Amino acid sequence: MSRLSRIAEFGQQVWLDNLSRRLLDSGRLARWLEEDAIAGVTSNPAIFHKAIAEDPLYRDDLARLRDREPDPERRFEALVLPDIRATCDLLRPRFEASGGEAGFVSFEVSPRLAQDPDATLAAAKRLWAAIDRPNAMIKIPATRACLPAIRDAIAAGLNVNVTLMFSPRHLDDVFAAYCDGLAARHAAGQPVDHIRAVASFFLSRVDTLVDGELPESTAHLRGHIAVASAKAAYARWQETFGGEAFAELHAAGARPQRCLWASTGTKNPAYSDVMYVEELIGPDTVNTVPDATLAAFADHGEAAETLTEGLATARERLAELAALGIDLDEIGERLQREGLAAFDQAYDALLRLVD
Predict the structure, then answer these.
(1) How far apart, in whole angstroms, are the C-alpha atoms of residue 304 and residue 280?
(2) H/E stretch holding 158
């Protein structure tokens, strides 16, 4: 048993934060699924920009699409949605064997729509229909503007991966949107037992920003705030979905929205390259990892249930941070704006590439 596959013993799924045609055609993705129990795949504009720019397997199809499809955004979708479908099909046995709990593949709506809930919802529905696989997930950003789109996508029966979450406020808002969407669907007499969603909580960017804000007198907090936030988020998840408020929906077959740890590649070389994996392993969660982190954990990572350990210490660290006047909700808004700007840039570069 590989080091990565041992994580599943503690109830956590590992998803790969990468996708390209070469990964599929070479059989490397299939080997990771078989040997390392990789249980899902996520993608974003930056991932596809890199894939299309570097993978020659796209060239002929792109040349044909330039003649047939005048719109760059539709051309991009026509180029990569076959890869999304093929990856869904590759993971379909895992999806069915798990009763619909694993085996998901995520594709993102255009980041240009992040402040337009109606356009985001329309795009999510269009992409869901175009992919046409029960183990697809549509990524929608956790902007305040898009909370209604998240709620309505769930009410419409879509699987949703809510992305760009950085703070306690984001977590509460997204959990509420998910539950409201399920409640609306249930009240309309429609089934809720097949819907799955994840809440993607970003980590390394939090430490990068907070570390720069900390005075020398509190240097002991550096590199610890993102993990502390994730442990507190998981405790909040347990309260939200394990309590009476969710009981009626749970009785109707609804499943909790899982916490997904994202941005788990360590950015500071002084820190462990597997810290955002090793320190956050626990039941009913997902960790989505880039190739480098995947390889690092496969080489020297240690699997153990760590997510529920040290919650009191985590809360003490967060309280100490708050006493310094550093507000994680404000930090989260700043990081979300920066994340959206980065996704916008990646998407613009991607459309220029296919144009």
Answers:
(1) 9
(2) none
Q: Considering 50, 125, 139, 267, which one is annotated as catalytic? A: 139
pLDDT tens digits, one per residue of 188-201:
999 999 999 999 99
pLDDT at 1: 76
Q: Which of 43, 27, 344, 338 is nearest to 206 (CA)?
A: 338
Q: Which of 148, 155, 256 is nearest to 199 (CA)?
A: 256
Does 125 qualify as catalytic in the annotation? no
Q: For residues 283 and 256, is the Cβ–Cβ distance under 8 A?
A: no
For the chain, how are helix, strand and coil distributed in percent, rounded to 5? Answer: 60, 10, 30
| C-beta separation of 70 from 91 below 8 A | no
Going from the C-alpha of 218 to that of each of 3, 223, 224, 317, the distances in angstroms are 34, 11, 11, 10
User: Which among 279, 35, 47, 111 is positioned nearest to 287, based on CA atoms?
Assistant: 279
CA–CA separation, 80 and 45 (whole Å): 11
Task: Measure the CA–CA gap between 7 and 66, rounded to whole angstroms.
Answer: 44
Tell me: the pLDDT tens digits for 58-109? 999 999 999 999 999 999 999 999 999 999 999 999 999 999 999 999 999 9
How open is the CA angle 274-17-282, to the nearest 5 degrees?
Answer: 50
**Domain boundaries, given as residue ranges, for the chain:** 5-354
The pLDDT tens digits of the residues spanning 280-331 come to 999 999 999 999 999 999 999 999 999 999 999 999 999 999 999 999 999 9
pLDDT at residue 156 greater than cutoff 90:
yes
User: Which CATH superfamily groups domain 5-354?
Assistant: Aldolase class I (3.20.20.70)
Whether 171 shows a pLDDT value over 80: the answer reads yes
Distance CA(156)–CA(149), nearest Å, equals 10
